[in-house]
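Try it yourself: sequence plus zinc ion, in.
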Amino acid sequence: MASSAPTATVEEQGGGVVRIAMPFAGFDAGLNVHLVRGDGPLTLVDAAAALPGVSRMLSGALATLGLTYADIEQVVLTHHHLDHIGLTGEVVAAGGARVVANAAVAEVLADPPAHFHGELEWGIAQGRRHGGPDAMMDGARTALPYTTAIPAVLVDHVVDEGDRFAAGDLTLTTVLRPGHSPSDTLFVDQDAGLSFVGDHLWDGSPVTPVLGSMSGPRPAAEYVAGLARTRELTDHRLLAGHGATVDDVAGLHDERLAGLETRIDRARTALTDEPTSTWELGSGIWRPSSSGYRGPARLSALLAALELLAARGQAVEEHDGELVRWRRGG
Ligand SMILES: [Zn+2]
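Structure, out:
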């Protein structure tokens, strides 16, 4: 019987970096893990998802390079999401790779079930505060068995802003850039012009600058400011967690921000003098989604727009018990 199981593609990126790109359910842009080779530790940047078939794809891609998990000396993590930390424990168990990540990621990996249960509860409460139906978090509930099955892993080297370490032929500097998630980290090699950016900025997601609104309070302004600093990496290749490597950093940034301004304007137009919940406002704006129910992503996108409007004085947030409502400002 011919095998039709999906496989990863392997592509040189320069500087000893290889992109291992895997198909990933629901994501046209797929899922990336980067391998860094050279004189320093053989490094994986991110460790994909602990979902059926993913480990087989990743280990299969490494095998085409003559490598196994046991050869990996270091795993560097860009943020704490399921699709980037999932196989860390499996790689470490195979060969004792040291794990490098910031304190927020280390805290999640110390007890993934507790963290991901908490994140789901937070999302449910956040949805309710903004008038969303309880079913809004169904997707996150579906993923919970996978997130809570991620084994606890000790982060051997907890890095903070400015910390430097070797990875293959690169010397990476740690840059904290929360926004997409509270734990987002960039790992930058200025001389090589290569930056690992996780999901901070990638080509193929129009909602990139918003997801943080579902995983922490008021991150939209911080995210936009962080993206503006990332735009300064104009001569860099951005090695992202999903999709192709980004060579036109300023162009992609500006495209994202233009899209954000469009969403902000749509939210501004929807506001009236009558206080309205975020979900109710969204119901008047959102079109039916062809790719299924995307409640949390849409709600967080709208929330980000409203947060930014409030900062401009064009929206006012009101609290009615637990419920948050918005009205026109100014
Ligand atoms: Zn991701």
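One thing you can check immediately is this: The CA atoms of residues 17 and 36 lie 5 Å apart.
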